[in-house]
Amino acid sequence: MLRLGFHVAFLRVREGGAVQLVHSSYVGLGAVVRKAADISEALVSNYRVVGKVSVDDVLVRRWLPGEVLAVHGATVKG
Questions:
Q1: pTM surpassing 0.85?
Q2: Residue range 6-57, pLDDT digits in tens
Q3: Sequence-distant (≥ 6) Cβ neighbours of residue 49 within 8 angstroms
Q4: Distance between CA 40 and CA 9 in Å, rounded?
Q5: For residues 23 and 2, which has the higher predicted lDDT (pLDDT)?
Q6: Are residues 7 and 21 in contact, defined by beta-carbon separation less than 8 angstroms?
Q7: What is the 3-state secondary structure (H, E, C) of the chain?
Q8: pLDDT of residue 4
Q9: Cβ contacts of residue 31 below 8 Å, gap of 6+?
Q10: Burial, 25: exposed, middle or buried (Cβ in 10 Å; 0-12, 13-18, 19+)?
Q11: Is 1 in contact with 52 (CB distance < 8 Å)?
């Protein structure tokens, strides 16, 4: 996960080392986009913090494709 000055994104490292930035675009269509990190305008920031979303690889592999995950002790507000 990548925290910028006013934006949050994910860095996706592909086989072979290509790095993509996945984020909700705040320009143009305002949609989720995936772009090569080295040419992404969203990386223009004076503040960057990089960290892992989770150390649980099974959780991440299930969460990324959108599988339903049970959250124990959580309250859902509708």
A1: no
A2: 677 888 888 888 988 888 877 667 788 888 888 877 777 777 777 777 888 8
A3: 2, 3
A4: 11
A5: 23
A6: no
A7: CEEECCCEEEEEECCCCCEEEEEECCCCCCCEEEEEHHHCHHHCCCCEEECCCCCCHHHHHHHCCCCCCCCCCCCCCC
A8: 72
A9: 24, 25
A10: middle
A11: yes
Q: Are 7 and 43 in contact (CB under 8 A)?
A: no
Query: Tokens at residue 28, please?
Result: 């143009």
Q: How far apart are CA 60 and CA 66, in angstroms?
A: 10
- Residue 20, amino acid: Q
